[in-house]
Each structure stands twice: as C-alpha cells, then as structure tokens.
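Sequence, structure tokens quoted for completeness.
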Amino acid sequence: MKREILERIEELGGNISSVVGKSLAEDLCSITFDTVLYRKNVDTPWSNADDEEPIEGLGDFVDENIELYKKDKDVFFNRLYEKYFILTEETYGQYFWSGEMFTPFREGSTDFEEWNDFFNDDLHSFKEIFDVTDNKDPDFVHLFYGYGYPDCIYVVSQDVNSENPTVFGTDHEEWFIEVDVEGDLEKYLQRFWTKKELREYMEHRIDLWIQG
C-alpha cells in the first residue's frame, strides 16, 4: 500500500506496526484499532454539513462541559476522547475497523460453505468489482462496519492497484445486491475525523458560538 495510506491509518488511531508489505490483504488484516472512527459530515442538497453533529450527541456533551472548555480546552478534549474515541458500543454513528478476510468464492473456506450459493445468484451484480480485478473468484478484505450508510466496507484483495485499492460499500439491507463504489482507499480514509481534525473543527465552531 501507499505510504500515505498507512500514515493516514496511523493518524486515525490504527496500529500499523505489523505491516511488512507482503500483500495487500495480509497488510490490511495485520492492522488493529483501539478506537472507533467517525465520518465527517458532508454537504447535501437537503443539509449543510455544519448543521449536523460530527458525532451523534456531541451537542449535549458540549453543553454539559462548556465551562470546562472555557477553562481548559486540553482537559475538555481529553474528556471528549475518553468518551467517544474508544471501542464503545454506544450508538454515536461510529464505524469499527474489521480487517478480516471474506472469502465466499474460496472453496474449503467457512465463508464459501455459508455464502457461495448466495454469491452465485444471478441477481447479484459484480460488474464494478470485476472492473478492478482480473480474478473472477475474488477474495475481499472487510475493512469497516458501522452505523452509517453504507454500513459494510470492503476492498478486493486481488485489486490490480494494490497500492491504492478501490473501496466498495454495501448495506446490510441490500448486502452485495447493491454495491457502491466509494473511491480509492487513500481518499476514502480522508472521510474520517482524526482527533486533531475534530478538535480544530470544534474549536472553530464553539469559539464562534461563544462570541455570539
């Protein structure tokens, strides 16, 4: 993988110490996270990104801790990180790193036994997936799962661009029946907040609010 991808994963809280550059799949599966991730809000035709909370419930946290923010921003943000940037199951709209193989076409694997019939159904379109690999029976790396849409994120382990593979999203309600191309991995990882980015964004917004 590109060094920039690994650096971004590290900035997001990932542990890349076991990455040795042997293969895309092995490197991705060697990465671990001790935190959840939050996607940045984006402007849509019906909503301005700044009108949405970066993390669900964050407005209440700010209201409850505004005096602490005014007194000591470092303590405020450390408290925020301790609440939200952990492997919490509380529903804040977060995503979890998976880093596991998914092998529905690999005969003999558990995934093959459970899912191969489903993936051979003519209703499932893999055109976008086959566009990025020469392998007609591809393996996948399940990167993320979470509360947003789409809630399951994958790359093809035999992507011809192993330095910066294409990311695919599919939702549990139409799992691999509808597949969205999410762009390349380097750009996709930019959609998540690092702690530093979130702090800079929040300081700007809160300071404007305090100033009235």
